[in-house]
Request: fold
Amino acid sequence: MSLSIPDLDFKGRRFLLVGGAGFIGHNLALRLHQHGAEVAILDSLQVNNVLSLHDSQSAPQERLLYEIMLQQRLNLIQSADIAMFVEDARDYHRFGKRFQDFQPDTVIVLAAVSHASRANKDPKSTLDHSYRSLENALDNSRGRVEHFIFMSSSMVYGNFQAETIDETAPCEPLGIYGAVKLGNEKLVAAYGNVFDLPYTIIRPSALYGQRCISRRVGQIFIENAIRGRDLIIQGSGEDRIDFTYIDDFTQGILRSAWTEDAKGEIFNITYGSARTLNEVAELVSKEFPGTSIKHTERQALVPERGTLDVSKARDLIGYAPEYPVSRGFLEYMLWYRELFENFDSSVLLGVNAQSNE
Reply:
């Protein structure tokens, strides 16, 4: 994998990643560290992390698999000597103390309930974790940081009004997750207007890659395939989704943090070319011969999506995605194979993985 961006050097820069122990956050922290930044993570490990596994109804073997992934995250963070503050970002005073201790010049907020269906099932927790964490990050950042970066979502668009949309497309989210993200965006922009806080808003789509435990559709495909189970697709499978590999996404964040032209802007940071669920399922099934693909009823709150235009990010910050699904999913499947080879596959293979998102 090509992780280096030779023209970016963050030596002397201090980044605080709020919710930084998650899937996106730990990959981003490692990449910032690779480019010379001093990085600190503030994370309670409650949401989609260590503590949440013990509250879930997942089978014990599934929890074991995800505990292994989470331990890998923590080991990588520790090996890179990245500071980890195990704090709840909703606690204003604890947040403020850690902020004062570290004194970041750039804050990146990733804290959220990171899955649309979970947000719809538990709106109270979603609102609590999203708004309170963001409020504390914004209030501590105003007048004190050079750049505030907020991780939003392509779900703010709701149903795409065209096969390809850019950042000017209307935002009409369908469910709780997208509505909260859009509200978060408005709050970030308001702090920018009222307090002259330099900000950037990022809209990703269908992220996938190593050490994700969010049960995203690509992850479920691979886990089912490696266990010899069916790949379940909701609906006809002709839904087009702009799948984005984590290395492309973190490249976009680094370029946003580096470039002055990113301030005050909203960016789609995706691969920039949608593929159907059927195409991705077929790609996975070819790597695991004998895997069957089955279809179930489509969920009503899943928006009609497509390609997100990344021209603005290409032009303003030099974003250059390198991983179409044909490359990114091969990398992802290779990582999964190695993971199962390095641990007791008889245990990891024994889980019922028929759930679908």
Remarks:
- The chain is about 45% helix and 15% strand.
